[in-house]
Recover the amino acids of this structure.
């Protein structure tokens, strides 16, 4: 069977509350510029807001003035659990303070072995994660390539999850594969 090959996420659309609380959260708390809006072309009574999450792609939110913040997303088969946004280590380190200033409850720091995370909810209850990798891939490699090799290394060690030593060893192996050194590695 031939595949339809994806090349990344185009956009993600949330159901939000009213227009202003949506802008206050996505731009005011998360710093995503509010870049345009238009009616939802499938349901013109619903507004469609567009935000830039920092990589030039789009996060969009359907809003309706009758909806107010405070609702909760119900987990059920087929529903989304959470969305994770990439942040720099500097931003991740400031996130707890800034969420506190915005009076937004959160998980506190969570160590995932290969990344740092903080979880909190948007005004309608959708779970949001701020994620920061603990490593930079070698030039020309991707995070996915490093993680794929780190997975194999952690399996060989019998470890439960990827740890920093797996990341370091994967980065070393990827760099060595390039064969740029004239020295023989004994």
């Amino acid at each position: 069977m031939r595949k339809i090959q994806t090349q990344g996420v185009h956009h993600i659309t949330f159901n939000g509350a009213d227009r202003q609380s949506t802008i206050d959260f996505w731009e005011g708390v998360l710093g995503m510029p509010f870049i345009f809006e238009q009616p939802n072309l499938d349901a013109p009574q619903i507004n469609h807001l567009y935000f830039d999450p920092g990589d030039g792609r789009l996060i969009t939110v359907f809003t309706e003035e009758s909806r107010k913040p405070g609702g909760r997303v119900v987990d059920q088969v087929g529903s989304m659990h959470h969305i994770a946004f990439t942040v720099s280590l500097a931003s991740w380190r400031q996130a707890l303070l800034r969420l506190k200033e915005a009076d937004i409850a959160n998980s506190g720091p969570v160590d995932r072995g290969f990344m740092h995370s903080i979880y909190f909810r948007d005004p309608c209850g959708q779970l949001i994660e701020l994620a920061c990798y603990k490593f930079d891939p070698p030039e020309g490699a991707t995070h996915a390539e490093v993680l794929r090799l780190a997975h194999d290394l952690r399996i060989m060690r019998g470890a439960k999850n990827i740890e920093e030593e797996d990341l370091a060893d994967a980065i070393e192996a990827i760099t060595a594969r390039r064969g740029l050194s004239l020295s023989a590695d004994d």
